[in-house]
Amino acid sequence: MKRLLALQGLILAVFVLLGNGLRSISTTTVSVSQSEFASFLNISVEKTDVLIELLLGGAVIALAVAPFVLTVRNARKVAVIFAIITTICYAMVGITMLLDPALDVREIVVIASFAFSGFSVAFFAPLAQLAINGEEDPATRARLTTVWISAQPIAFLLTPQLVKYVAFDIGTGNYFLILAAMPMVFLLFIPFVFGRAEATAIASSAPPEAAPAWKRVLPLVIAILAFEAWTASNSFVGIASPISLAFLGLFILICVALYSRQKHLTRGAAAVPPLAVFLLGMLFVLEIPTTGFYDTAYLVRHLCSSDLIDNRATLAAASQILAVFGTGAVLVRNPNWGINMLALSLPLLLAGMVAIYFYPYQDINVSLFYVSKVLSSIGIGMATASVIGIVAGMAAQNRIIALAPAFIIMFGTEAGIEILEVVFQSSKLAGLETTHAYQAVFAVQIAAVLVAIGLMLRWTWSRGGLGHAVAEAAA
Q1: What predicted TM-score, i.e. pTM, was given to this entire model?
Q2: Fewer CB atoms < 10 Å away: N or C end of the chain?
Q3: Where is the chain membrane-spanning (predicted)?
């Protein structure tokens, strides 16, 4: 019996790991293969960022919609549909790279494939969260949540090595054909993970979970599409372009309209725990300074060696994995320590961001480049594990909150990249030289962490101190 339970636990852990890891594998693959995609599509390396934006944009839309459409009853059907779509998209990229058709065909296939695969593979993360939330044992949920959170840094750690030692030998086209098989592997676990829960839900006398009407979801999707249009125009024509400003204005108008109609759009929805809203808001703010995009870009421009940059990224991913598992282990033994661990992560993040600010004053190869990244990686790992660990305990109160962390992480990352890009381009337009423009970005990263610290202090004081905040989290 114990062996069966162990096997079931292993299957669930692998399912959770793949669920939140496959999306990161595809994004990281494109990131580290930019030169090859630039050559294949006959564009500059900088313009390949649009492929990453397609993957991120599709994922953001999917993760925004997922809480409104996913239930235990339809999990198997949703998984099958999007696993097939993801497999087809990855296979199309691989086949196109092998056949090397005309340039316009290459552009259409690759862009469409990344857009649809970014959307479809993103559903795997909330499916994994749904499986975690179905576990009755709090300790098991905490362990699986730790695995779910660690999937992204594990993908960041392994994917560059896979591209370097596998894709380099067999070709990127064949690599994507192999990657196309991974969604089918994920799909194999579905009957073992959701079979019993689905049967129980159908057999029970309880009515099916009512998903919110599409008219409530559609405005959110429209707002995200407007945001994606603005980010794409910023990349192609700059933040000062009339096209970019028009999309920005449209996005702001939609957000204002949504805010004015929030009571109507949320009428009849389950109450959202205030603590969950606060913690998810904190996580969103902390994702902004920790994208790692501009500090890495500065090191490239600073003529640091590729070995330093690669080793720094590897060390950062390993540090984040250790921080996630360490925080998860603490929360398994002491579930009430979530707020304490979150509070502890903030000074580490601040120290890391302050250290990054001093990059322009350093030589080409110094230990500060490593130390700063390790501190920020440990900090965001602890913060993410703490927030999701607490929010996961509120899953029974609100299904949308239960599936929200994946959206918050992804949208926070994309919003962070875009905010920092606006700061960088604005600094350049204001006449600052490139080094000072990077420092302006680094200053905004510090400010973001200070905002998070301010929010944390305000919340704890309004609750009568950290002890009361911990007690509220435990409740």
Answers
A1: 0.87
A2: N
A3: 51-71, 78-99, 111-132, 144-163, 175-195, 216-233, 239-259, 271-294, 314-332, 339-359, 374-393, 400-417, 437-457
